[in-house]
Write a structure and sequence with these properties.
Strand content: 15-25%
Largest sheet: 6 strands, parallel
């Protein structure tokens, strides 16, 4: 039987889709590259924004037209957060949320046998444990993503994810170790640890993210990277432990969302600008020359021009190496969507554009600071006949002039940075 997989949303979703694919391959399914070839199609949904929902629903309609006889299974955050809407989708044959996805092979088997609609959505309960799925890998990538955490307890006023993912749950250290050893045996040089709220790893077991990183490091993997982190889970004690793990790469993506205390409070973000700034000061002291990237939202309800100017000033002071900028989008089902002081779209866009100008300047400043330094680069592919392409420890893209007989893919090599070209570092092998 042939299977087509479609993913929407974040790195965690992509990792889970790979795992679902691996699970079904264990049950004699074969992954195909085109929906027209599939006996079944699995769509792993995201629901961070209402506009994202719209794009996903359009894609579902297109998939049904391309594969009219295939079984369509919809899973993921949209289904878990909005099961009543999900079950009304006429194109879908099976729905299951973000819980108990180990049963997907059985669901497909039952539908193929009985051709009866299946609703397998189950609500999260207090005390639910982390659901382990087979580790899926992508041979196109030189780094492997390992999911070690799920759920979130924060309930930021704009975010639907706690409703879609349940409370914080962590993977057992023994499982993390076992999966990492398999990835090492497959030749991976870098592991990216990911989760919905990664910084709260171990919260329910008196462990921390430092314990998980140490468990991975003990397997002999040379490079460990952390995906997006929330600031309020990073204490000085945790950061000091992390700084003593040489395999951990000095790149931290720590969401700030806004540089205005009034808006942080309205967002229910659990920290102040001063606390965030102190956190970055500690990180930079413990991890010299690290890269710190972030997310910033413009146009949150009640954000005034004065509030936005505070964000601009704070952003420049924090000297982020890169910023993911997005405009606030009302997410039905969240408190922020009901706030009366909604910001007009044109003002959201204008502020995002102004922030982009500053972000570009900060990124250029960081790149300039890299010139003359040496980095260990994990090479991923030959970008063109002219350059090899890879990422340094700080996750900045590095290009190295290529020779026709070279194949550097999968190797970690020392590179000295000589110049900048198109927001990338140009270097030479040491």
């Amino acid at each position: 039987m042939n299977l087509f997989l479609q993913t929407f949303g974040c790195k965690v979703n992509a990792t889970e889709t790979d795992s679902i694919g691996a699970l079904l391959m264990q049950n004699n399914w074969q992954i195909v590259s085109e929906p027209e070839q599939a006996d079944a199609i699995i769509i792993n949904s995201c629901t961070v924004t209402a506009s994202g929902d719209k794009r996903m629903l359009q894609a579902i309609r297109k998939l049904r037209k391309k594969a009219p006889n295939a079984v369509l299974l919809l899973t993921g955050c949209y289904v878990q957060a909005f099961p009543e809407q999900a079950k009304l989708l006429p194109e879908i044959d099976i729905i299951i949320g973000t819980k108990n996805r180990n049963v997907i092979p059985v669901l497909l088997e039952n539908y193929i046998k009985n051709h009866a609609y299946i609703n397998a959505v189950e609500a999260f309960q207090t005390g639910d444990s982390f659901e382990s799925l087979p580790q899926g890998t992508d041979s196109m990538h030189t780094r492997a993503f390992l999911k070690i955490q799920d759920g979130c307890n924060r309930f930021c006023s704009y975010c639907i994810i706690p409703y879609a993912r349940g409370r914080c749950r962590s993977r057992e250290l023994s499982e993390i170790t076992a999966e990492t050893k398999k990835l090492v045996q497959q030749g991976y040089q870098e592991i990216v640890l990911c989760g919905i709220n990664l910084a709260c790893y171990g919260l329910e077991n008196n462990l921390t993210i430092a314990d998980a990183v140490q468990a991975v490091a003990d397997t002999g993997i040379p490079r460990i990277r952390l995906s997006s982190l929330e600031p309020d889970g990073l204490t000085q004690t945790v950061l000091e432990k992390l700084s003593n793990i040489p395999e951990l790469l000095p790149h931290f993506h720590i969401s700030v969302q806004t540089g205005c205390d009034k808006i942080l409070k309205a967002m229910r973000r659990h920290y102040t600008c001063e606390e965030y700034a102190n956190l970055l000061k500690i990180i930079r002291k413990l991890f010299p020359d690290c890269a710190i990237t972030t997310d910033i939202m413009t146009g949150f309800p009640s954000e005034t021009e004065k509030d936005f100017l505070e964000t601009l000033k704070f952003t420049e002071k924090m000297a982020f190496s890169e910023i993911h900028i997005f405009r606030y989008s009302p997410r039905p089902g969240t408190p922020a969507s009901e706030m009366t002081e909604q910001v007009p779209e044109n003002i959201k866009k204008s502020r995002a554009d102004r922030l982009c100008v500053l972000a570009k300047k900060l990124h250029e400043n960081y790149l300039l600071s890299c010139i003359g330094k040496k980095y260990q680069v994990l090479f991923e592919r030959q970008k063109s006949s002219e350059f090899h392409n890879g990422h340094a420890e700080n996750y900045i893209t590095v290009l190295v002039p290529a020779k026709s007989d070279e194949n550097l893919r999968g190797q970690v090599l020392a590179v000295k940075i000589k110049s900048i070209q198109d927001n990338k570092l140009i270097g030479e092998l040491c």
